[in-house]
Amino acid sequence: MISPDEYSNQPIRLIQISDSHLFTDPQTQLLGINTQQSLQQVLAQVRQDHPDPDLLLLTGDLAQEADELTYRRLEQTVASIGGRGCWLPGNHDDPKKMQQLSDGYFSGTKQLFAGEFWQLILLNTKVPNEVHGFLEQSELDFLEACLKRSPERYSLICMHHHPVKIGSQWMDNINCRNGQQLLDILTQYPNTRAVTWGHIHQEFHRQYQHLQLFSAPSTCIQFLPASDEFAVDTLAPGYRWMELSNDGTIKTGVSRIAEYQQQVVLESEGY
């Protein structure tokens, strides 16, 4: 748990990083993009625009080659941001290796108390050897246990796969298959404020009853919104920032690299 004493009465400042797709060799490219370099550029933008965050949240597909060397380099790269780090797996990740390495900058816990008023609940949507996601009953039980234990706290739910359709057929075929079951649970708890995820490599923000639903862009390639087939976008990599206020409100937005020179291979049919 993160102690309330580590925060003042100011909003909790959170940076969400997602879908870095790092390789063992930092020079390897994904669809023409050096993923290590683009992650470093995103972090430089964070230091410029949102310095000294309280929390850094990484929402999956952190490694394209999920080995210890890749995750260790990821940790070294992002720890320079400061604050506390937490991460969860995506479909490309190895949850067991991530858990084994959660002894340094990254916390291995799935429930984080942030200040007096907030908690983050991290859920694993990975299905072994599949691209789509699913929340096992054990994950849903854990979620409800956290919500029931701390009903006075505002909750931010964090995951990798998207729980709602985003209007892109190929992406909606690989979403969290029981996302509606998740939302049905969350709407029973009025202090649950938002659900955030990665996976879709694009900005998304929608209201669902009392919940805000949003995603973070990738730190490397971006997917073209509203495309029924795989397609990449020319937008620069970026991150999502959040301010979690003591009254339960969330200010949030997406920032992207201001001067980005790498060029993605637009003719790509997948990866």
Provide a compact summary of the structure:
With 271 residues, the chain is an alpha/beta fold.
Number of strands: 16
- How much helical structure, as a percent, in the residues? 10-25%
CATH topology name:
Purple Acid Phosphatase, chain A, domain 2
Q: Please report the first level of CATH classification, the CATH class.
A: Alpha Beta
CATH superfamily: Metallo-dependent phosphatases
Low-confidence stretches: 1-5
Radius of gyration: 17 Å
Strand content: 25-35%
Structural class: alpha/beta
Major beta sheet, strand line-up: 6-5-4-1-15-16
Average of per-residue pLDDT values:
94
H-E order:
EEEHEHEHEEEHEHHEEEEEEE
Tell me, what's the shape? globular
The domain tally reads 1
The major β-sheet equals: 6 strands, mixed
How far is the N terminus from the C terminus? Answer: 37 Å
GO molecular function: cyclic-nucleotide phosphodiesterase activity; metal ion binding
Family: Belongs to the cyclic nucleotide phosphodiesterase class-III family.
Organism: Pelagibaculum spongiae
Domain Calcineurin-like phosphoesterase: 12-202
Question: Would you kindly provide a written description of the structure presented here, covering whatever features stand out?
Answer:
The protein is an alpha/beta fold. The protein has one domain (4-256): Metallo-dependent phosphatases (Purple Acid Phosphatase, chain A, domain 2, 4-Layer Sandwich). 21% of the residues lie in helices and 25% in strands. It has 6 helices and 16 strands. It has helices spanning 35-49, 68-78, 95-100, 137-149, 169-172, 179-186, and strands at 12-17, 29-30, 33-34, 55-59, 84-88, 106-107, 111-114, 118-122, 154-158, 192-197, 205-208, 211-215, 222-223, 232-233, 238-244, 250-256. The strands form 4 sheets. It has a 6-stranded mixed beta sheet with strand order 6-5-4-1-15-16. A hairpin with a 2-residue loop joins strand 11 and strand 12 (211-215). The longest helix is centred in the first third of the chain and has 15 residues, at 35-49. The chain is globular. It starts with 11 loop residues before the first strand and ends in a 15-residue tail after the last strand. Residues 12-202 form the Calcineurin-like phosphoesterase domain. GO terms for molecular function: cyclic-nucleotide phosphodiesterase activity; metal ion binding. Keywords: Hydrolase, Iron, Metal-binding. This is 3',5'-cyclic-AMP phosphodiesterase. It comes from Pelagibaculum spongiae.
